[in-house]
Amino acid sequence: MSELAKSQKEEQLGSAPISKLLWQFSIPAVVAQIVQAIYNVVDRLYIGHGVNEAALAGLTLTFPFMMILTSFGTLIGVGTGALVSIKLGEGCKEEAEKLLGQMVLVKIIFFIVIPFICYLLLDKILLLLGGTPSSIPYAAEYMRVILLGNIFAHLGFGMSGIVRAEGNVFRSMVAMLIGAGANIILDPIFIFGYFEMGIRGAAWATNISMFLAMAYCFWHFSSKAAVLKFRPRNMRIDIKTLPKVFSIGLSPFSMQMLGSFVQGFFINAFSLYSSSEAEGTMMIALFGIANSIILLAIIPTFGLSMGLQPIIGYNFGARKYARIAEAMKKAILKLADGSEYEGLSFGYEKSVAGELVFYTAMTGYPESLTDPSYKGQILIPTYPMIGNYGVPGDEKTNGVSNFYESDKIQCSALVISNY
Predict the structure, then answer these.
(1) What pLDDT is attached to residue 130?
(2) Alpha-carbon gap, residue 46 to 323, rounded angstroms
């Protein structure tokens, strides 16, 4: 790709219609996220059929552990992606490349030191997270392999985010498809095919797949199509930019950490309060299956937010604030005492008034919105609802609605935290 073509790719972020850009950037991200979610489902299918129920429960037990590791990846990765888009908008390509080099170095440090500590404390961490005596050995077996190659996954995911931030959304999608696709192919070979390694085989398949995704990203940043180049000399820590990166990544870092704790609480509850070890193991395994299916249902909204970030970041850096306003509408929550809280609106835009009601949302998102007892009120859920920015169709079974409590949305508005 010529320098002129790369310049035009950058310029489209600051000139093309926002609606067109949002579709152009979001669709590849949605596709990649859906394939990743499908892999999670297929992975559990292979382990459930190729090993046993306890192994499936052991894989579920590793989920909060993996979320802890992922939180450190988002701490540096999300912030770097946002700042790269901003720097490109400002026309500071060299600074953007320095941010890329810094991210690679910090991820290497993070995911040599942190997995090493986790490896030493693995048994204690798994006991703390919960699980049954029959599932914990499988979780330990899986994590001992995963921790050896965890650096590949985090470099792959982090660099694919920078590929998207520079405007190469298709190649970012390809990187994620390589990881997920290779995993789907390698899983049966390592679990119960030629190698017959059981749950360790699933871990080795993941490590190899993430290595391939990482290698593709490194290749991209040395190719002619790359807007940015990965230069080893840029692998240094800048004490001026690193705090900015961490400040942006702190919110998703905290969300991942809290999500890990929530998952751990559920697993502990299944283990402690089931009538038998066998029932507890089954409940944990089912919890993992349910999580995978739920993720598949809500993950398209993650792709939309991933597609929106480089558009907003670039235009913010280019000081084209009017274009940012096209993508994001401001909303203000005014309380009776005169205090105001600023945020962003989504959905139908109009001014509303009503009583603020804090609720858990545990009964379900559409059920809460259509509950007549919330008529005219403004709902503030206290339980995280990740990606539920929409209302499903009114599906019915035997004439009874599956999701709705009434025939329309009853509340006046919904206030949520967006991470």
Answers:
(1) 83
(2) 46
Q: Is residue 109 predicted with pLDDT exceeding 60? A: yes
Alpha-helical regions (H) of 274-401: 277-317, 321-327, 365-369
Element (H, E) at 92: none
The whole-model pTM stands at 0.75
Q: Using CB atoms within 10 A of its CB, is residue 254 exposed (0-12), middle (13-18) or buried (19+)?
A: middle
pLDDT beyond 90 at 80: yes
Tokens 């979001």 -> residue: 26
What is the pLDDT at residue 144?
A: 93
d(CA 82, CA 105): 18
Closest listed residue to residue 413, CA positions, set 362, 349, 359, 365? 349
The three-point CA angle 387-333-416 to 5° equals: 15
**CA 374 vs CA 351, 404, 407: distances in Å:** 18, 13, 14
CA R_g for the chain: 23
Q: What is the DSSP string of 239-292?
A: TTTHHHHHHHHHHHHHHHHHHHHHHHHHHHHHHHHSSSHHHHHHHHHHHHHHHH
Residue 304 pLDDT exceeds 70: no
Report yes or no: 287 and 129 within 8 Å, Cβ to Cβ: no
DSSP designation for 130: -
Separation between Cα atoms, residue 367 and residue 214, nearest integer Å: 42
